Automatic annotation (TrEMBL):
InterPro entries reported in the protein's UniProt record: DUF397
UniProt protein name: DUF397 domain-containing protein
Domain DUF397 intervals: 7-57
């Protein structure tokens, strides 16, 4: 994903089917939303939480459980 700023970004590996998440950085907090339902709400992560999450996602986009 591109460097985050206050604009919404979607992963560069995301296809054009719209089935992805978008993220942005606002006031030091990472906000994530569903690109198919952007008005449905969002989830907020601290930088540490976000970095921990990203580190646990493998190259295929799968979340590795401990």
């Amino acid at each position: 994903m591109a460097a985050l700023n206050e604009e919404w970004h979607k992963p560069t590996r995301s296809g054009n089917n719209g089935a992805c998440v978008q993220a942005r950085l606002v006031d030091g907090v990472i906000e994530v939303r569903n690109s198919n339902a952007p008005d449905a709400g969002l989830v907020r992560f601290t930088r540490v939480e976000w970095e921990t999450f990203i580190a646990a996602v493998d190259e295929d986009g799968e979340f590795r459980l401990p």
